Amino acid sequence: MKKYLISAVFALLPMMSFAAVGVALDSVDLDPSDKTSLQLGATTYMDYCMGCHSLKYARYNRVARDLDIPEDEFRATLMHSDASFGSLMENAMPAKQSKVWFGITPPDLTLVARLRGNDWLYSYLRGFYADASRPFGVNNLVFKDVGMPHVLAELQGVCADKPQMGGHEDRGTHDDGCKKLAVEGTQTKEEYDETVYDLVNFLAYMGDPNKLERERLGWMVLLFLAVFWFISLLYTRELKKDIH
């Protein structure tokens, strides 16, 4: 019993460390059934993230099928390499050199949404701000002294001050986040928040690609159990009649 308790404590340590960042996270409600959002998120990931962060536990053809993207369109717009359509989504960045460049090898992000949580990702990607003391000129409110540059700065710009966090973000309401920019981006605040929403929605799908099917089957199983519970109830009543 003691071994199981110790194992459970060590299993929870990563989540405890993420919860202990001391920052109130923005909460976000994702929609895994929104194929348009997932497609836009996949496009953002492949254009801005895939160069450093692989998705090596997923395959191109599976993602294309789940997101309803035809193979020729997927190859033309999302595959920036000559990899086969059925291969794992790996990149060409050398691990040793990337560790020298960034101080740490950029992690694979296939399961990052399950590890960190959707709220953490959404807040992190909107949490960069200008900090001249850092090697890349930016810091992050959620992940202090992060070694990663703000790869989406082209879109958002660079926030002049620490952004505000701790609100609830429905699609179309953007009360929190960056209030003032030191460097302008190509998107408005609302457009950037929508881009981050789509990207996090895609990463959440990557971490649990069977979620919708599992939930659909779950309801079918519950319906099956309910029907047979009702049948067993009627059968039990008939048996009791014979007993009395």
Characterize the structure shown.
- By secondary structure, this protein is mainly α.
- A hairpin with a 7-residue loop joins strand 4 and strand 5.
- Helix 7 packs antiparallel against helix 9.
- It folds into 2 domains: 187 residues, Cytochrome Bc1 Complex, Chain D, domain 2 (Orthogonal Bundle); 28 residues.
- The protein has 10 helices and 8 strands.
- The N and C termini lie far apart (47 Å).
- The strands form 4 sheets. The chain has a two-stranded parallel sheet. Strands 2-3 form a two-stranded antiparallel sheet.
- 50% of the residues lie in helices and 10% in strands.
- About 7% of the residues have low confidence.
Total DSSP E strands: 8
At CATH's second level, what is the architecture of the largest domain?
Orthogonal Bundle
Helix segment count?
10
Mean pLDDT: 85
Largest sheet: 2 strands, parallel
User: How many domains comprise the coordinates?
Assistant: 2
Give the helix level as a range of percent: 40-55%
Descriptors:
244 residues; mainly alpha; Cytochrome Bc1 Complex, Chain D, domain 2; 2 domains; two-stranded parallel ribbon; two-stranded antiparallel sheet; 10 helices; globular
